[in-house]
């Protein structure tokens, strides 16, 4: 009996002798802890999932925006100004190229290099045609101006022949090697006529022709732009990602 009392005094507790209220309290605490752990774990999981979802959406939105900016084709109507700048960049006078063609491209109809070439040719024809109608009173007092009037008329005719070559018949290609060669010849000849006029005006030494010389130089720029676009037409089509018609 003494040995049994010693064991009880050491602190050993027989299960049948435990306090039932204490056991219930322990069970409640354990249950509460588990619920807290579950709530906290769920909250952390949901937070991480939400953050991941937001990150994916932001990344996809940014990627789509970047792709839209980098893959928008130059031939797109919404990219008209950029397309024209690209075409004019191959010329010696990109500013006059852009400023003269841009008003004719409203609203944008077609952003192909051939379309911009045709507009540039129209600009050159218009400018040279205006020069060919010099006042007769001015011409009769200056042999050099009379020569210029004839040269302007020839230049306008040569540019019109170039425009005729761009009129496409059914089943015909818009451009081929022969057409390109012929247009290069006509535009170059028109530019030569303008240069001959300027040389003659320089010899007169008259200040009355200064304004005319400025206009002649302007028309030369337009023709130079037209010729440069034609000379680079294939590389421009490659840059636009288009097939040359």
Description:
By secondary structure, the protein is mainly α. The chain has two domains: 12-71; 77-240, Up-down Bundle (Butyryl-CoA Dehydrogenase, subunit A, domain 3), CATH 1.20.140. The protein has helices at 2-10, 20-71, 80-88, 94-101, 113-132, 136-140, 143-165, 177-204, 210-231, 233-240.
In total, the number of strands is: 0
Which whole number gives the mean pLDDT?
76
Total discrete domains: 2
Give the radius of gyration: 42 Å
For the record, the CATH class of the largest domain is Mainly Alpha
Number of helices: 10
Helix percent reads over 70%
Model regions low in confidence, pLDDT < 50 over at least 5 residues: 1-18, 56-71
Concise synopsis of the structure shown:
This protein is mainly α and 245 residues long. The N terminus is likely disordered.
Highlighted features:
disordered N terminus; 2 domains; mainly alpha; 245 residues; Butyryl-CoA Dehydrogenase, subunit A, domain 3; 75% helix
Topology record:
Blueprint: H1 2-10, H2 20-71, H3 80-88, H4 94-101, H5 113-132, H6 136-140, H7 143-165, H8 177-204, H9 210-231, H10 233-240
Helix pairs in contact: 5-7, 5-9, 7-8, 8-9
């Amino acid at each position: 009996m003494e040995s049994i009392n010693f064991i009880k005094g050491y602190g050993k507790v027989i299960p049948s002798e435990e306090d039932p209220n204490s056991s219930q309290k322990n069970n409640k605490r354990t249950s509460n802890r588990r619920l807290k752990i579950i709530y906290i774990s769920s909250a952390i999981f949901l937070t991480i999932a939400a953050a991941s979802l937001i990150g994916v959406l932001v990344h996809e939105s940014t990627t789509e925006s970047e792709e839209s900016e980098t893959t928008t084709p130059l031939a797109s109507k919404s990219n008209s100004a950029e397309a024209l700048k690209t075409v004019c960049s191959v010329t010696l006078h990109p500013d006059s190229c852009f400023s003269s063609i841009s008003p004719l491209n409203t609203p944008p109809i077609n952003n192909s290099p051939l379309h911009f070439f045709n507009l540039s040719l129209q600009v050159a024809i218009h400018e040279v045609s205006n020069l060919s109608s010099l006042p007769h009173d001015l011409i009769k007092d200056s042999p050099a101006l009379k020569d210029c009037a004839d040269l302007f008329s020839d230049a306008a005719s040569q540019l019109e022949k170039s425009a005729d070559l761009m009129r496409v018949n059914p089943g015909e290609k818009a451009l081929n090697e022969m057409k390109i060669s012929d247009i290069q010849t006509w535009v170059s000849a028109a530019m030569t006529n303008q240069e001959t006029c300027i040389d003659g005006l320089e010899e007169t030494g008259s200040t009355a022709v200064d304004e005319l010389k400025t206009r002649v130089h302007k028309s030369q720029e337009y023709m130079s732009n037209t010729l440069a676009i034609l000379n680079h037409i294939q590389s421009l089509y490659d840059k636009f990602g288009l097939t040359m018609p």
